[in-house]
């Protein structure tokens, strides 16, 4: 069984409602990156039932912070308390300053944007500012050690055309806290029609390629460096480093 199918089977085993819905989701790429980490202190922000955290090597000390108590209980039971859980808000993380090597933020930032839109809690300008998003990144910066790393996945609003983050919004909010970061594009095959699924190449092309290539290698091929703003990408993958 390839890695992608193994992880998908794990999600479906522990909670079918938490399946990402995409066999080539950007979080598979994120997992391929964090599996290399050893002997680190790591926070999985909004980690839910702990699928991503559970892919870390046991030498790491991992905390899953989430507001959903049921998800945290599931995480504890499913993974034999190897992942330390904290019930709490992303807006006020109950951890000390300069205490973590890595923070994982997988498909969470867009939730903060949605909450601010719902509550009409935004500051309009050339770039719209979302205070909750700003505060989350401030908190992450506070708890990371100097040279600590933030790993982000988040959907691209240019693809979804809903309440996800745009490239400019993401970069603007990152710039306020992290001067050293890279925004990469994940799955840049275009959606040629909103109406006809067969013309959504972001769905079709990876599935076709998976019939002739190892799906794990396809996930690696789907990541593109930020040379131009790619409106076609399904998601963003970000690595940001805290200043010394």
Largest sheet: 8 strands, mixed
Distance between the termini: 42 Å
- How much of the sequence lies in strands comes to 15-25%
- What is the level-2 CATH architecture name? 3-Layer(aba) Sandwich
Class derived from helix and strand content: alpha/beta
Q: How many helical elements?
A: 9
Classify the fold: give the CATH topology.
Rossmann fold
Q: Look at the structure and name the CATH superfamily.
A: Vaccinia Virus protein VP39
* Shape category: globular
Give the assembly state of these chains.
single chain
Strand line-up of the largest beta sheet: 3-2-1-4-5-8-6-7
Task: Give the CATH class.
Answer: Alpha Beta
Describe this structure in words.
The protein is an alpha/beta fold. It has a single domain, classed as Vaccinia Virus protein VP39 (Rossmann fold), CATH 3.40.50.150. The protein has nine helices and eight strands. The protein has an eight-stranded mixed sheet, sandwiched between helices. Helix 4 runs antiparallel to helix 5 (131-143). The longest helix has 13 residues, at 131-143. The radius of gyration is 18 Å and the shape is globular.
SSE topology sketch:
Blueprint: H1 3-14, H2 26-34, E1 41-45, E2 61-66, H3 69-78, E3 84-87, E4 100-106, H4 109-118, H5 131-143, E5 144-155, H6 157-160, H7 167-175, E6 180-186, H8 201-209, H9 215-221, E7 223-224, E8 235-241
Parallel strand pairs: 1-2, 1-4, 2-3, 4-5
Antiparallel strand pairs: 5-8, 6-7, 6-8
Helix pairs in contact: 4-5
């Amino acid at each position: 069984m390839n890695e992608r199918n193994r992880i998908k089977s794990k999600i479906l085993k522990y909670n079918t409602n938490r399946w990402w819905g995409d066999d080539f989701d950007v979080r598979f790429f994120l997992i391929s990156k964090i599996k290399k980490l050893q002997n680190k202190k790591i926070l999985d922000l909004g980690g839910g039932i702990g699928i991503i955290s559970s892919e870390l090597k046991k030498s790491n000390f991992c905390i899953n912070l989430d507001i959903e108590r049921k998800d945290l209980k599931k995480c504890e039971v499913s993974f034999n308390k190897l992942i330390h859980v904290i019930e709490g808000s992303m807006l006020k993380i109950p951890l000390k300053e300069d205490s973590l090597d890595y923070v994982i933020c997988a498909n969470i930032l867009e939730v903060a944007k949605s909450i601010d839109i719902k509550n009409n809690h935004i500051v309009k300008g050339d770039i719209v500012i979302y205070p909750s998003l700003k505060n989350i990144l401030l908190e992450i910066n506070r708890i990371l050690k100097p040279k600590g790393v933030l790993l982000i996945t988040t959907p691209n609003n240019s693809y979804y055309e809903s309440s996800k983050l745009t490239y400019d919004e993401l970069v603007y909010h990152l710039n306020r806290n992290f001067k050293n970061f890279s925004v990469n594009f994940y799955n840049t095959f275009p959606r040629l029609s909103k109406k006809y699924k067969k013309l959504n190449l972001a769905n079709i092309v990876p599935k076709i390629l998976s019939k002739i290539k190892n799906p794990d290698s396809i996930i690696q091929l789907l990541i593109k460096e930020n040379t131009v703003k790619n409106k076609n990408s399904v998601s963003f993958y970000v690595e940001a480093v805290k200043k010394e």
